[in-house]
C-alpha cells in the first residue's frame, strides 16, 4: 500500500506539538484528520496543511466523551473507509502541590490524558484491524519517569500512558498494529511560554545536556518515524525526545 493512501488522526492538533505532528504527517503523504476540542483551532491546522496541497480535514473531538469520539471516527470511516495512524496527543496539565491538588483537577487530567488515550485507541484499533495494519503513537512525557514539583496529576497520568502503550502493543500486535510512545522533554510551545517562569527555564536548560528546549517539529519527526513502514519492528517502545534529560546525571 502506498503511503499516500494512508489516513492519520491526530488528537490535540489545534496547536503546539499536535499541530506540528499533523503538518509533518501531511508532508509524509498522509491524509490528516486534525482533531481538537477547539474546532476553530483544528480548522486552522487543517487549512495550513491544505495550503501545501495535502489533504486534511478538521474534526471536533472531545476525548473524554464517548459520543464525540464515536462521531469523529465514524466520519473517518465514512470518508476513507480506513484508518492507519492514530496519534494520541491531546493532553492537559494542572499544576499544584500534592497537598493542594483538587480531586476535580486530578480527575480532569486523568480523564483527558489516560481515559482519552484509551477510548481513542479502542475506536481507532477497531478500524485499523480491518486492514491488519496500523500505527498508534501516544504522547507521554519525561514526567512519566522523573517527578517535578507541581506534577502530582500530570506525571502519574503520563506514567499510565506509558503502561497503556505497552499493553496496547501486546494486545494488538497480532492484528498488525504497533503501539509506541514519545516522551517529550521541555518543548517550546505556547503552554511552556506561559507556564514556565524564568527560573524553571534556567533549571531545565541546566538539566538538559543539549542546553535548550526542544521544538515541536522535533517531536513531530519522531512521531512520523514511529508511524512509518520503517518502524514496523518497533513495538511497545518509548522514544525519549528530551535532549538527553532522562539520561543525564551530574551535568558538569
Strand fraction: 5-15%
Question: What is the element string, with H for helices and E for strands?
Answer: EHEHEHEHEHEHHHE
Low-confidence stretches: none
How many β strands by DSSP?
Answer: 7
Overall mean confidence score, pLDDT:
95
Distance between the termini: 49 Å
Main sheet properties:
7 strands, parallel
Spatial order of the strands in the main sheet?
3-2-1-4-5-6-7
Overall structural class, as computed from helix and strand content, comes to alpha/beta
What is the C-alpha radius of gyration, as a whole number of Å?
17 Å
Percent of residues in helices comes to 40-55%
Descriptive report:
This protein is an alpha/beta fold. Helices cover 44% and strands 15% of the residues. The protein is built from eight helices and seven strands. It has helices at 16-27, 39-50, 66-80, 103-128, 154-172, 190-195, 198-207, 216-226; strands at residues 7-10, 31-36, 56-60, 85-88, 134-139, 177-184, 238-241. Strands 3-2-1-4-5-6-7 form a seven-stranded parallel beta sheet, sandwiched between helices. Helix 2 links the parallel strand 2 (31-36) and strand 3 (56-60). The radius of gyration is 17 Å and the shape is globular. The relative contact order is 0.14.
Amino acid at each position: 500500500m502506498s503511503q499516500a493512501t494512508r489516513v492519520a488522526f491526530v488528537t490535540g492538533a489545534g496547536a503546539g506539538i499536535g499541530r506540528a505532528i499533523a503538518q509533518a504527517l501531511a508532508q509524509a503523504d498522509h491524509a490528516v484528520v486534525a482533531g481538537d476540542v477547539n474546532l476553530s483551532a483544528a480548522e486552522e491546522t487543517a487549512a495550513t496543511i491544505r495550503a501545501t496541497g495535502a489533504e486534511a480535514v478538521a474534526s471536533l473531538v472531545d476525548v473524554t466523551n464517548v459520543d464525540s469520539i464515536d462521531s469523529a471516527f465514524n466520519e473517518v470511516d465514512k470518508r476513507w473507509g480506513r484508518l492507519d495512524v492514530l496519534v494520541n496527543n491531546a493532553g492537559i496539565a494542572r499544576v499544584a502541590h500534592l497537598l493542594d491538588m483538587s480531586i476535580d483537577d486530578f480527575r480532569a487530567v486523568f480523564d483527558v490524558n489516560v481515559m482519552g488515550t484509551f477510548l481513542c485507541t479502542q475506536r481507532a484499533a477497531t478500524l485499523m484491524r480491518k486492514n491488519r495494519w496500523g500505527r498508534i503513537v501516544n504522547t507521554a512525557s519525561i514526567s512519566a519517569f522523573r517527578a517535578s514539583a507541581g506534577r502530582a496529576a500530570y506525571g502519574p497520568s503520563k506514567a499510565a500512558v506509558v503502561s497503556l502503550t505497552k499493553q496496547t502493543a501486546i494486545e494488538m500486535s497480532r492484528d498488525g498494529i504497533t503501539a509506541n510512545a514519545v516522551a517529550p522533554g521541555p518543548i517550546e510551545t505556547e503552554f511552556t511560554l506561559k507556564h514556565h517562569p524564568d527560573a524553571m527555564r534556567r533549571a531545565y536548560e541546566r538539566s538538559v545536556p543539549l542546553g535548550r528546549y526542544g521544538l515541536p517539529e522535533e517531536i513531530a519527526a519522531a512521531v512520523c518515524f514511529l508511524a512509518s513502514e520503517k518502524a514496523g519492528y518497533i513495538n511497545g517502545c518509548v522514544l525519549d525526545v528530551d535532549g538527553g534529560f532522562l539520561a543525564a546525571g551530574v551535568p558538569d
